[in-house]
Design goal:
By secondary structure, the chain is of the alpha+beta class. It folds into 2 domains: 4-224, Rossmann fold; 240-319, Nucleic acid-binding proteins (OB fold (Dihydrolipoamide Acetyltransferase, E2P)), CATH 2.40.50. Helix content is 26%, strand content 32%. The protein is built from 8 helices and 17 strands. Helix 2 packs parallel to helix 4 (136-149), helix 3 packs across helix 4 (136-149) and helix 4 (136-149) runs parallel beside helix 5 (166-182). The relative contact order is 0.12. The structure holds adenosine-5'-triphosphate.
Length: 327
């Protein structure tokens, strides 16, 4: 069992309370991703779970055991950071075997575990290379492999892909998705800025806002039924259109839910972003912000066009003046 239970957790740095009354239940084998704006406390929460930071209040349990005062090395966790910090003078094989060697594990067991991790991460051809002879994505896979070899109950990732270029990010993200399938018992907690990583990898996403949990749900739940304006504006790229009424309530419409060409509303195309498979048209509808409309290539309007538009009423998200969902 490697479930994680966080109860009324608080974390202060001096007088500043960075995490405020966090409650979370992460199930054994679940892949949970923390997202939220810069400075909201994602990394701090992950570091509290890992034991790299002491918590200031509340309780933290891993596998049914309270670990508030258990050091990081005794929590059965492995952590992968954005900087992979491999030993440069050791081969890939030696880097991956190192922690088991320190524990004086039998040589044959080390070989089997390293070979198994290398297979899971497609690293077998590189076992005799040195880190300098690898790409960034391969190095990050070695860092992940080094963690797998330790056979942790819980895997913690702190923005593991953020130092990689776009193509490597995609490739390494797929490796992590495959890793998750091959380690169904291992609980994984992952911090990212990247919406695509969160939406594609997570069983559940935790949205943090200024040190509090704003909403927890599957990617689909967060996308389809954001419970607050904050989550509505945070999840989804491009952002949901949020139209404020005079009474303080807000109507939210996703860019892909707007249909151009007919309907009771009208706007003038202010500019268009062409992305290949689709385009975003930005309409001036007399509000502070332009209305974003996602279009497939064949339907792209031109700048200056006055267009009619409509949206299905069942796709509209409504929020009260306090920013809470009402429909
Ligand atoms: N060791 C520390 N001492 C004092 N303040 C800290 C310390 N570590 C983090 N903080 C503060 O705690 C808050 C949360 O930081 P944290 O790194 O957890 O945010 P984050 O959500 O991971 O942000 P980012 O997305 O920018 O990495 C920030 O305001 C940060 O300045």
């Amino acid at each position: 069992m490697s479930d994680i239970k966080v109860t009324n957790l608080r974390k202060n740095f001096g007088a500043v309370e960075v995490l405020k009354d966090i409650n979370l239940d992460i199930r054994s084998g679940e892949f949970v991703i923390f997202v939220g704006p810069s400075g909201c406390g994602k990394s701090t929460l992950l570091r509290c779970i890992s034991g790299l930071e002491r918590i200031s209040g509340g309780a933290l349990e891993i596998g049914g055991r309270v670990v508030n005062n258990v050091p990081a090395s005794k929590r059965g966790i492995a952590m992968v950071f954005q900087s992979y910090a491999l030993y440069p003078h050791m081969s890939v094989r030696e880097n991956m075997a190192y922690s088991m060697k320190l524990r004086r594990a039998p040589k044959t067991e080390i070989e089997v575990r390293v070979a198994d991790a290398a297979r899971k991460l497609q690293l077998a051809p590189y076992l005799d290379r040195y880190p300098r002879e690898l790409s960034g994505g391969q190095r990050q896979r070695v860092a992940i492999g080094r963690a797998i070899v330790r056979d942790p109950q819980v895997f913690l990732f702190d923005e593991p892909l953020s130092n990689l270029d776009a193509a490597l990010r995609v490739a390494t993200r797929l490796e992590i998705a495959r890793l998750k399938e091959s380690l169904p018992q291992t609980t994984m907690v992952y911090v990212t800025h990247d919406q695509v990583e969160a939406m594609t990898l997570a069983d559940r996403i935790v949205v943090l806002n200024a040190g509090r949990v704003e909403q927890v749900g599957t990617p689909e739940e967060l996308y389809e039924r954001p419970q607050s304006l904050f989550v509505a504006g945070f999840i989804g790229s491009p952002k949901m259109n949020l139209l404020k009424a005079e009474d303080g309530t807000t109507t939210g419409i996703r860019p892909e839910d707007i249909n151009l060409g007919s309907g009771p509303h009208r706007g003038k195309v202010a500019y268009v972003e062409y992305l290949g498979a689709d385009s975003y048209a930005f309409l001036d509808i007399g509000q502070d912000e332009l209305l974003t409309v996602r279009q497939t290539r064949s339907e792209t309007p031109q700048v200056g066009d006055v267009v009619s538009y409509d949206y299905p009423v069942e796709r509209v998200h409504r929020f009260d003046a306090q920013g809470m969902r009402v429909n």
